[in-house]
């Protein structure tokens, strides 16, 4: 099944701003509805009572430069 991106935003932010965004998201998740907003779009999504939750930390190494990049991902999944 092909993936359809319904919302995406990516920008550099301070740790404090990221923590604030995650705190807001946590409160919205508790309430069952999350509001997603960027400069060009916004979307509301209902979160079911018991979705699947995944936390993943990855280290990727650039094959040309040897530079390492880390990704910390929090993912919530559910089916309809």
Automatic annotation (TrEMBL):
<dbReference type="Pfam" id="PF20068">
    <property type="entry name" value="Amphi-Trp"/>
</dbReference>
<dbReference type="InterPro" id="IPR027598">
    <property type="entry name" value="Amphi-Trp_dom"/>
</dbReference>
<feature type="domain" description="Amphi-Trp">
    <location>
        <begin position="1"/>
        <end position="79"/>
    </location>
</feature>
<protein>
    <submittedName>
        <fullName>Amphi-Trp domain-containing protein</fullName>
    </submittedName>
</protein>
């Amino acid at each position: 099944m092909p993936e359809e991106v319904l919302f995406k935003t990516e920008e550099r932010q301070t740790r404090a701003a990221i923590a604030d965004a995650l705190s807001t998201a946590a409160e919205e998740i508790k309430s069952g509805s999350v509001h997603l907003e960027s400069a060009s779009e916004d979307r509301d999504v209902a979160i079911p009572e018991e979705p699947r939750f995944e936390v993943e930390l990855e280290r990727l190494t650039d094959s040309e430069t040897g530079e390492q990049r880390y990704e910390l991902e929090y993912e919530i999944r559910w089916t309809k």
